[in-house]
Amino acid sequence: MPRKRRRAQALADDNSKEMDGALIEREKDSATSKYFKDKMTRLLSDFYNKSCIELAKSFLGQILVRRLPDGTELRGRIVETESYLGGEDEASHSRGGKQTERNVAMFMKPGTIYVYQIYGVYFCMNVSSQGDGAAVLLRSIEPIEGLDTMRTFRNVRRSEQSKPLKDKELCNGPSKLCQAFAFEKSFDRRDLATDKSAWLEAGSSILEEDIASCARIGIGNAGEWTHKPLRFYIKDNKYVSVRNKAAETGVPCLSVITAFQADK
């Protein structure tokens, strides 16, 4: 095994071992963490109990936290999301209302994590919302804390001759985000409101006028759903995966999404 892969493996050991030893003692009472002392800055179940589009927008500006087995905590500000609206959404894993072993988390209570694998290698992380089969994809994050660890995780699958990753390249895409935060399949069906290794903390509220709305990325053969403006991101943010200058003007895309919501 290459040296850098061994180092990363030591940091992100199998999640089944996360609850052993000193970590168990530390997590018996969440109040022992400094991040829970100020009247629970953690976002609880009520935060997630929203419609899919509303939740996707509400995620913008909030802080995603990942606690590693050694107690290290990684943090990043969510800057880009995508909505997948359930049965009628032809681009959704739950299109037609079909529930499978793979997508069952999309049908669970709002705030449930849905992790799926792409290309047999990478992972993407979603969070369920109101509505059967509806979920929000976490697409890009602005890293805040633990950047060196994120860089180590990201470098596992990169050539040693590759150029060093810039901060804005660490989490600017759904699979990059998961790799940087060590999110894998074992997180599927966990509850963000109660999990001990992943949660959201209150960040900043983003005004509607500062949110760009445009078509989701990588959607094909989904008819009209290919072009629905269901991707949301913070305007002028350099950590977003792909910016859409037309969407950032606001008027065309926001009018479309408003009309679309009115039809729901």
Explain what this protein looks like in three dimensions.
The chain has 264 residues and is an alpha+beta fold. The protein is built from 7 helices and 8 strands. Strands 1, 2, 3, 4, 5, 6, 7 and 8 form an 8-stranded antiparallel beta sheet that branches. α1 packs across α5 and α5 crosses α6. It starts with a helix and ends with a helix. The C terminus is likely disordered.
Quickly describe the structure:
The protein contains 7 helices and 8 strands, in the order ααααβββββααβββα. With 264 residues, the protein is an alpha+beta fold.
- Report the count of strand segments: 8
**Gap between N and C termini:** 52 Å
Q: Any idea what the shape is?
A: globular
Low-confidence stretches: 14-39, 252-264
Tell me the major beta sheet: 8 strands, antiparallel
- How much strand content do the residues show? 15-25%
Radius of gyration: 18 Å
Structural class: alpha+beta
